[in-house]
Amino acid sequence: VMTVWTPEQASAFLAATTGDRMQACWLLALSTGMRRGELAGLSWSDLDLERGRLQVTTQRTTDSDYQVVTKEPK
For the chain, where are the E strands, in sequence order? Predict the structure, then answer.
């Protein structure tokens, strides 16, 4: 069973993160459902401002030695 936040909980979280350097990331995660690795793998080339689109092309995670691994998303 997947548990998700209510709109009120999401609003409270965003209010609590006001001013946080990662606030745009939190908003993107809440509004798109993107995974942590997908968010970490985003680059400016994934964003098309003219069309208002964002494309997930890579994901970034760490391996068992805590080395950053970049690969295709699921």
Answer: 47-48, 53-54, 59-62, 68-71
The pairing of strands 53-54 and 59-62 is unpaired
- CA dist list (Å): 25 to 6, 42, 60, 68: 19, 10, 14, 19
**If DSSP codes are grouped into helix, strand and coil, which group holds residue 69?**
strand
Separation of alpha carbons 36 and 25, rounded Å: 9
Give per-10-residue mean pLDDT for the chain (74 aa).
93 96 95 94 96 96 95 88
Q: What is the pTM of this model?
A: 0.82
